[in-house]
Amino acid sequence: MSPMLKLYDHLEAMLQVRQNRNKFYERRLTYFVSDIIELLAIENTDEIDLAFSRAIQACEALHIPFDYHFKKLYRSNGKNVMVDYKISALARYLIIVNCNPTNESVAKAQLYFAINQFTKK
To answer: DSSP characters for 26-65?
Structure first.
């Protein structure tokens, strides 16, 4: 009589595959939205909220899974706990190109991406 595959054995294998996949995608999440805000001297939270929302909309329009490029987390600055996101290079790019270009730091970052895009061989 051959051994039967038990349902929980199959579920355990599926869980392991999912955990390995998540570890792979989490390694791609190398930036924090809060660091972008600080680096680009964005003072208006509405501006970053709009850019973040548009970045998510772009991913949705392209059928790119949100969790591959954005991971919500909570960070502490010693006094307060704040919501932040760890993001991929693609998410960083999408957020920056959707920020307000009247901010000089944002405009420079957008130009940086444009120059690097057009000069790659």
So the answer is: HHT--EEHHHHHHHTT---HHHHHHHHHHHHHHHHHTT--
